[in-house]
Amino acid sequence: MEQKIYLNGKFATRSEAKLSVFDHGLLYGDGVFEGIRAYGGKVFKLSEHVDRLYMSAKAIMLEIPIEKSKMSEIILAALRENNLKDGYVRVVITRGEGDLGLDPRKCSHPSIVVIADKIQLYADELYKNGIEIVTVATHRNSPSTLDPRIKSLNYLNNIMAKIEAANAGMTEALMLTGDGYVAECSGDNIFIVVKNILVTPPASAGALDGITRNVVMEIASGVYEACEKLFTPYDLYNAEECFLTGTAAEIIPVVKVDGRTIGNGKPGSVTSFLIKKFRELTRTDGTSI
Ligand code: PXG
Asked: Which domains does the chain have, with CATH numbers?
């Protein structure tokens, strides 16, 4: 059965689902998106993802033409249409069809695309053994240019970072802020563990306000101290543990950064605890498809 894609009010087959080449999402990267996971017939943190989608849209003055509740229904329907109990949903809202000029006022109808699919970012053994990452020259967006909390269709910095990492033979790129603090990776937030305290950079300084990041903070509460604080690569090199979080990546341990071994070079006990608790939560929590 061919994959079914939701496009502007109805489901179409993958080969039929098409947008105009005059859509400003394509011409200018003018739009916003979300990536959401379903586990065992339940969508994880659905309302958090939908809320963030509408906040990103508000920040770029794009009015999504349907209510949040309808958006949630469409996301669930996309999974049902494709018989997916475990999957990945990509919601894309573009500014819509306009003309060859930046002016978004020429685009009268935003486009809504919802793709339900599968995803596996890293091989299973990397979750056990950890990954190696590298700091790249491309900086994360700064709040003075494009607020990093906007999950926009403009991912070129992140893509350039990914290319730099690939050129260095690594899968993931560590991106810094303009003044040299650790921001996040190309598609994941970052945490370090220092003296048993979890530390992650503040989202307002150069990171997406990640939903998995917030889940980790919740899981940790009552067990480990956790805080948002700026830190530099020096702090990272000397941390006891490091891991990345993201809807697609989930929680992945990092054991080497720029050639420096983190801790003893194996995923640490705090990271392993969080992975275990995260997996339990994704199995029990969520909105039924
Ligand atoms: N930082 C960035 C820049 C991201 O794009 C995250 C962190 C993690 O946030 P969540 O809320 O997912 O915990 C993201 C997540 C995709 C895709 O292709 C999307 C992301 C990451 C990787 C792939 O849909 N966004």
From this structure: 4-117 (3.30.470.10), 124-284 (3.20.10.10)
